[in-house]
Design a protein that fits this description.
InterPro entries: MetI-like, MetI-like_sf. Belongs to the binding-protein-dependent transport system permease family. This is Carbohydrate ABC transporter permease. It is a multi-pass membrane protein. By secondary structure, this protein is an all-alpha fold. The chain folds into two domains: 44 residues; 204 residues, MetI-like (MetI-like fold, Orthogonal Bundle), CATH 1.10.3720.10. 72% of the residues lie in helices and 0% in strands. α2 packs across α13 and α3 packs across α7. The chain is globular. The relative contact order is 0.13.
Length: 280
């Protein structure tokens, strides 16, 4: 009797949740599927009437145009370089700062942590001009390194690494110190391997942030050969018209790195972001 009742309740729940889940999947999957299908259509068929979802026949002419006419390959390399180096620098700084704030006791520890966290309350628009002036004085304008270094360290990255490292037992570090292990070796031989989930999650998010960044490269870069993917995408939108075939093809290509990254590292995300969040 109980089993039948539970089965009946499960069936009613599925009857309600099934259509809702299907609707959500359609809403999330339809835009990227439309983007891919449109990019595979001939230029004259993108806005043909009546509209068709599937390309008939599929063609790669839009992708060839993106590489031949706009130099998208160079812009793709620039974004890949900026995003990879920026993510690596951010992870390194966050790892060191998180280790210091999580495992060392010093005067003003809480003050410095709150000072770093308070930077989250400052809108980017307020500090754009000071950072721009600093980069100008350093000679980093119109340089990919100017795009990389300005937003490399983030308070959110420090917070994620601090919270995760706090969950690592102090006994491991004390045993290493008793054996005479220097702090830099403890950091890179013990803390780093044990923090792989948090590092992977932080690296993925930083990579995506830098890959999708438009405002900062727009302010820094003036040479077209140093454009990133986002600047190249925006260049297809003119005052009077939009180059839809090339824009759609470039949009599909620009999604591939972030999609591959998330699929490869998805098992680290929740573990990296939530482990140690409630531990003291």
């Amino acid at each position: 009797m109980t089993t039948a009742l539970l089965s009946s309740r499960a069936a009613r729940d599925w009857a309600f949740r099934g259509p809702l889940i299907a609707l959500v999947l359609i809403l999330f999957l339809l835009p990227p599927l439309w983007l891919l299908a449109s990019a595979l259509k001939a230029p004259n068929d993108i806005f043909a009437w009546p509209p068709t979802l599937l390309p008939s026949p599929a063609t790669l002419v839009n992708f060839a145009t993106a590489f031949d006419q706009s130099g998208f390959g160079l812009f793709f390399q620039n974004s890949l370089f900026v995003s990879t180096i920026s993510a690596a620098i951010s992870v390194l700084i966050s790892l060191m700062a998180g280790y210091a704030l999580a495992k060392f006791r010093f005067k003003g520890e809480t003050f410095f942590f709150m000072l770093i966290m308070s930077a989250l309350m400052i809108p980017l628009q307020i500090i754009l001009i000071p950072i721009f002036i600093v980069l100008k004085d350093l000679g980093l304008l119109n340089s990919l390194w100017g795009v990389i270094l300005a937003p490399a360290a983030t308070p959110s990255g420090v917070f994620i690494m601090r919270q995760y490292i706090r969950s690592i037992p102090d006994s491991l570090l004390e045993a290493a110190r008793i054996d005479g292990t220097p702090e830099w070796r403890i950091l890179f031989r013990i803390i780093l391997p044990l923090s792989i989930p948090a590092i992977a999650a932080l690296a993925a998010f930083n990579f995506v942030w830098r890959w999708n960044d438009y405002l900062w490269p727009y302010l820094i870069i003036t040479d077209q050969s140093k454009w990133t993917v986002q600047l190249a995408l925006a260049n297809n939108v003119g005052q009077w018209d939009i180059n839809w075939p090339r824009l759609l093809a470039m949009s599909v290509l620009s999604v591939i790195p972030t999609l591959v990254l998330f699929v490869s590292l998805q098992r680290y995300f929740m573990n990296g972001l939530l482990s140690g969040a409630t531990k003291e």
